[in-house]
Specification:
Layout: E1 6-11, E2 22-37, H1 45-54, E3 58-66, H2 74-92, E4 99-104, H3 113-125, H4 132-137, E5 146-152, E6 155-162, E7 175-180, H5 186-198, E8 215-220, H6 230-250, E9 258-264, H7 269-278, H8 280-287, H9 293-301, E10 313-318, E11 321-327, E12 330-331, H10 336-342, E13 347-353, E14 359-365, H11 369-376
Parallel strand pairs: 3-4, 7-8, 9-13
Antiparallel strand pairs: 1-2, 2-3, 2-8, 5-6, 6-7, 9-14, 10-11, 10-13, 11-12
Helix pairs in contact: 2-3, 5-6, 7-9
Length: 380
């Protein structure tokens, strides 16, 4: 399902050794635009450029390259971002201010603009209603393409994204693009996007590192004529964003399983859940299918949030089985072998109840040998 009025393209220009590396999204009419951006102080010029573009509240196109983050590249890097927008605008018959730019890849290398210029020209000739070439063009260390779709009274919300490593949101650590033919005003779209990000990408971590190039853009061109209620818009945006967040965690570098960390109670359950999700000891235990509950409680205890360990109840849920590991301040009577077998699943829930109150859910993955290999060799 693709929203009316949007086209996509993805081509290979040679920034990467293989796979496509230049992508375009184009709306056939001005689209309401909203965005959220990395809070990392070290950030790519494309982030600043696109933040300014979104302030205009209307966009027609997004041009993306993978294979080069174009970050920490000074004035030349900033000029290259503007040139990318100018080239896309030229080939699409648009104004430069109607084009957003996103980039992902290696930090600190100048981008080969000769290749980029050729790639943008070819992408502009290759537009179609198939988003898959674009989805491939934005990948870096990802193993799979990522997308999610929601329906709102016949209108479509489509989200596509990339993310596998350097994922610990302070906004949304990834590139994400949400396009819809719903009729939504920019201010309302901005509110819905921020709500969705708060419970999806900002509840996502792979390795506790916030990237320099993160952004998530939403475009609504109104081509369907459907004006959603606030509940419909918020629900659809959250649905696709949570789906993408889970897909990113599942595709974490070297990961073998998606882990949901659910914490109930305390004044800040999200802080506790995020500390557990970021713990290398918890993540390696999950890789080894080891129900090492002590690592979970130790991580919770250093989150800076007050709770009484004697009231904690810790369970893991996997393969349809619930295993109680800790309660009443002492180990529960569980079968370690059976719990370990259950943890071999590709989806595991760590459920920690610390008292009455709200529940926060954070999405993460395990740490395996592949993570070290990928990141040890990423630059060289």
């Amino acid at each position: 399902m693709v929203p009316n009025g949007f086209q996509f393209a993805g081509v290979r220009c040679g920034l990467k050794n293989k796979r496509k590396d230049i992508g375009l999204i184009v709306s056939d009419r001005p689209a309401a635009a909203a965005g959220v951006f990395t809070q990392n102080l070290v950030r790519a010029a494309s982030v600043d450029f696109t933040r300014e573009a979104v302030k205009g509240q209307r966009l027609r196109a997004v041009v993306v390259n993978s294979g080069n983050a174009n970050c920490c590249t000074g004035e030349q890097g900033a000029r290259d971002v503007v040139r990318m927008a100018e080239l896309a605008a030229h080939h699409l018959g648009l104004a430069t201010q109607e084009v957003a730019v996103a980039q992902t890849g290696v930090i600190g290398q100048f981008i080969d603009m000769a290749k980029v210029e050729h790639g943008i020209a070819e992408a502009a000739k290759s537009l179609s209603d198939d988003p898959k070439p674009f989805m491939e063009a934005i990948l870096t260390t990802d193993l799979v393409e990522k997308s999610a779709v929601a329906d709102v009274r016949g209108a479509t919300v489509l989200a596509v994204g990339k993310g596998s490593g350097m994922v610990a949101p302070d906004m949304a650590t990834m590139l994400g693009f949400i396009v819809t033919d719903l009729n939504v005003q920019p201010a309302r779209l901005d509110v819905a996007l921020r709500k969705a990000v708060a419970t999806s990408f900002n509840c996502l971590t792979v390795d506790s590192d916030t990237s320099t190039n993160d952004l998530v853009l939403a475009l609504a061109n109104g081509a369907s004529g459907v004006e959603p209620t606030d509940e419909e818009l918020d629900g659809a945006m959250r649905e696709v964003c949570v789906s993408l967040a889970k897909q990113v965690a599942r595709d974490g570098e070297g990961a073998t399983k998606l882990i949901e960390v659910r914490v109930t109670g305390t004044s800040d359950p999200k802080a506790v859940a995020m500390t557990i999700a970021n713990s290398p000891l918890v993540k390696t235990a999950m890789f080894g299918c080891d129900p090492n509950w002590g690592r979970v409680l130790a991580a919770a205890g250093r989150a800076g949030v007050a709770f009484d360990p004697d009231t904690a109840v810790l369970k893991v849920v996997s393969q349809g089985e619930e295993h109680l590991l800790f309660e009443g301040g002492a180990p529960a009577a569980y079968d370690p072998k059976r719990a370990s077998t259950a943890l071999k699943s590709t989806e595991v829930v760590i459920d920690l109840a610390l008292g009455p109150g709200e529940t926060a859910t954070v999405y993460t993955c395990d740490f395996g040998y592949g993570y070290v290999r990928i990141n040890a060799e990423y630059h060289t």
